[in-house]
Design goal:
By secondary structure, the chain is an all-alpha fold. Helices cover 51% and strands 0% of the residues. Helix 1 runs antiparallel to helix 2. It holds the Pfam family GASA. Belongs to the GASA family.
Length: 78
């Protein structure tokens, strides 16, 4: 079994960012405002390099994602 070689930290982050669209599609698949959910999820995923599992909740799995708030003080990330 072989593993890909990471040349730098930025390579690792780029790989994680490449996963954001698929992870956000899964997270937002049941959302009523799907496009808005995807938009916010992508912002959060790129900043935190993670998306909690499932379509709702489970934010304990990604503390950075859970800490992000909008201007109104409510959760920014879906």
């Amino acid at each position: 079994m072989s593993f890909p070689v990471c040349l730098s930290t930025s390579d690792t982050v780029a790989l994680l960012h490449a996963d954001c669209p698929g992870r956000c599609k899964g997270r937002c698949r049941l959302a009523g405002a799907y496009k808005r959910c995807i938009q916010m999820c992508m912002i959060c995923c790129k900043d935190c390099s993670c998306v909690p599992p499932g379509t709702y909740g489970n934010k304990w799995a990604c503390p950075c994602y859970a800490r992000m708030k909008n201007d109104k003080g409510t959760d920014k990330c879906p």
